[in-house]
Design a protein that fits this description.
single chain; 17% strand; 404 residues; 5-stranded mixed beta sheet; 3-stranded antiparallel beta sheet; alpha+beta
Length: 404
């Protein structure tokens, strides 16, 4: 099964690259879906390697490619490009749900039919609308095979009719995100986690990284990467994928608990891409504390604050709750008791001591910031548009010359 899935995935990647080359070569008036579909059909007939990919999956590649250009023209993403062999996630789309023929074998496992692969077994982790539980409003419309360093996975697309949720009766809370304390709530509750890898796994990762650096050092310039070095890279990627999966599991459990408890959650509107910019500078003006800033950037990226906010957004919406964003400046410097912002009040990472002579409040710095975040929301400083709605990430611009 794995070899057949690998072949289809590489065929889909090659189909994307051929389609991208065809798109750039054709004049604007000939870039139509009909012409692209004809080119794909001809390629599958003339190239045996591309014929491994089912016809429906090839059509899905075309739809995805056209949608990528639409997203670019709307300013949401960059222009699509060629997909490299070793830096691209392998995926295969099964656009028609009726071809899957899903059967639940027992409590832990199920089986599905994949075109040109056959019957495969998958881990049953969530109830699926199959058999008598499926109808026109609750059914499986397709699936996608995705390969990561831990192996092949299958994700099902489910169309379901959900009732309109009742308003959430929970209270309001503000959340301050951080590194030492990942989530601090305005009511004093905190959510933390340990290292994503065990001590033995961290030691194993260090050995693999040193081995990869040593093998890369002895490789001549322009020489092809050896099979041994690729195998070492795969082992490193497997450990990173395991850590990412554990982090995602912790985020899902934590955000579900928060969404069940609170009706309104307020977070800071952070521009994370600006926070993790490199401090190297230029040759004329080199940066300062570059290594320290690099470590901070890795820690910020490892916490994945944006993914936490995304999970809170849709989980609160399903429960009738609300997620709001407020401006981030000075939430850590302002005293939540008296409202004054005095320089030097945050003495350490965990200690906040108000320097206002008439106040002198002392408390946890993260708890103080979370209270300030909630205060901004209650005083009408929530940003518009509200969190969770579609917001254009980039300014609208003219279509790229390659797409005209």
């Amino acid at each position: 099964m794995a070899l057949k899935a690998d072949g289809q995935a590489h065929a889909a990647r090659t189909m994307w690259n051929c389609l991208h080359a065809w798109w750039q070569m054709m004049p604007k008036e000939k870039r139509t879906l009909a012409n692209a579909d004809a080119a794909i059909r001809q390629a599958r007939q003339e190239i045996d390697f591309l014929a491994v990919l089912p016809a429906q999956a090839a059509q899905a590649v075309l739809k995805t490619y056209v949608q990528a250009w639409k997203n670019c023209w709307d300013g949401r993403t960059d222009a699509p490009n060629f997909k490299a062999r070793f830096r691209t996630a392998l995926t295969v789309d099964v656009p028609q749900g009726r071809d899957l023929n899903i059967v639940r074998v027992h409590r832990r496992w199920g089986m599905a039919n994949l075109p040109k692969i056959g019957r495969v077994r998958f881990r049953w982790t969530k109830d699926l609308p199959v058999g008598k539980h499926a109808d026109k409003d609750n059914r499986i419309t397709g699936a996608r095979l995705v390969k990561d360093p831990l192996g092949w996975h299958i994700a099902f697309r489910v169309q379901t009719l959900e009732p309109v949720p009742q308003p959430h009766q929970g209270s309001e809370t503000g959340i301050d995100v951080g590194i030492t304390v990942p989530l601090a709530l305005s009511d004093g509750q905190t959510y933390g986690h340990g290292q994503w890898l065990t001590v033995r796994e961290q030691a194993r990762l260090l050995v693999l990284e040193q081995r990869a650096a040593r093998r890369k050092k002895h490789r001549k310039p322009g020489e092809r990467t050896s099979r041994r070095l690729h195998h070492t890279y795969d082992q490193i990627a497997g450990l990173h994928a395991k850590a990412k999966r554990r982090a995602s599991d912790w985020q899902h459990k934590t955000t579900t608990k928060i969404a069940d408890t609170y009706g309104t959650v307020v977070v800071e509107a952070l521009t994370i891409t600006n926070m993790v910019k490199s401090a190297k500078g230029t040759v004329d003006q080199p940066g300062k504390n570059v290594a320290r800033k690099s470590g901070l950037n890795r820690s910020i990226s490892g916490e994945a604050w944006g993914r936490t906010v995304t999970m809170l957004t849709y989980k609160l919406a399903r429960r009738g709750g609300t997620l709001a964003k407020v401006p981030a400046p000075n939430t850590s410097q302002r005293c939540s008791a008296c409202g004054f912002t005095t320089p030097g009040s945050r003495e350490t990472q965990a200690l906040f001591v108000c320097k206002n002579p008439d106040c002198g409040w002392t408390g946890n710095a993260d708890h103080n910031a979370a209270r300030n975040i909630l205060h901004l929301y209650r005083t009408g400083h929530a940003l518009v548009p509200a969190a969770g709605k579609a917001v254009v990430r980039r300014a609208r611009r003219a279509k790229p010359a390659t797409a005209r």
